[in-house]
Amino acid sequence: MNPQKRREIFERLRVANPAPRTELRYNSPFELLVAVVLSAQATDRGVNLATPALFRDAGTPRLMHALGVERLSDYIKTIGLYRSKARHLIETCRMLEELHGGEVPRDRESLEALPGVGRKTANVVLNTAFGEPTIAVDTHIFRIANRTGLAPGKDVLQVEKRLLKFIPDEFKVDAHHWLILHGRYICKARKPECPGCVIRDICEYRNKTKVPAEKPKAPRAL
């Protein structure tokens, strides 16, 4: 895909959604970090159902650490892998208090040193909480990058590096959310909604979903 097409893709996505945001609900970088850790192998909707009570009662690393693993597990037991996530979060809260003064660090190395925080989670926090031009490549973004020809790659790290190389600077802060939302609601895995897609004419996917043919109307009885 040439640079002109890439720019046009993001110009159209920006027109369609000028201020994209994560669908996870949070009120601080710490709450975002917790929500993203919980969202692994879970849906944003499921996380959003569990976190209001948790954040109301334990919205800081100190308060959440004081819960302990068992009490924290009670808040998040509707979420997949909740026991291991509870253990990771309690240890993360301890490290945030002891090493970072109760604040979420703004650098990748410190974030990835936290239990349960990998490169993708770190990228989400850096981008969404702190406005860094990072892109967390999840299954949606990996699919779109390869399917459309935007930044094809054999693994998530290669796709991430190519996206950061190819996307014009003015779009990099919001690109993460545009691509995730596009993959979640339009460029779906099984059957992409090509007829309603704003970039369908410049996307390089060969097997686009076609508009269903209208059934011929039966003649009126005289």
Question: How do you describe this structure in short?
Answer:
The chain contains 10 helices and no strands.
Structural account:
- By secondary structure, the chain is mainly alpha-helical.
- It has 2 domains: 3-20 and 135-196, Orthogonal Bundle (Endonuclease Iii, domain 2), CATH 1.10.1670.10; 29-128, Hypothetical protein, domain 2 (Endonuclease III, domain 1).
- It contains 10 helices and no strands.
- It has helices at residues 3-16, 29-38, 44-57, 61-76, 82-100, 108-112, 119-128, 139-148, 156-166, 172-185.
- Helix 2 packs antiparallel against helix 7 and helix 8 (139-148) crosses helix 10.
- The termini are far apart.
| End-to-end distance | 56 Å
Q: Helix/strand/pairing class, anyone?
A: mainly alpha
Mean pLDDT: 94
Order of SSEs, N→C?
A: HHHHHHHHHH
Strand content: under 5%
CATH class of the largest domain: Mainly Alpha
> Approximately how much helix is present in the residues?
55-70%
CATH superfamily of the largest domain: Hypothetical protein, domain 2
DSSP summary: helix tally: 10
Rg, nearest Å: 21 Å
The rough form would be described as elongated
Largest sheet: none
- Quote the CATH topology of the largest domain: Endonuclease III, domain 1
What's the total count of β strands?
0
| Count of domains | 2
Indicate the CATH architecture of the largest domain: Orthogonal Bundle
Low-confidence stretches: none
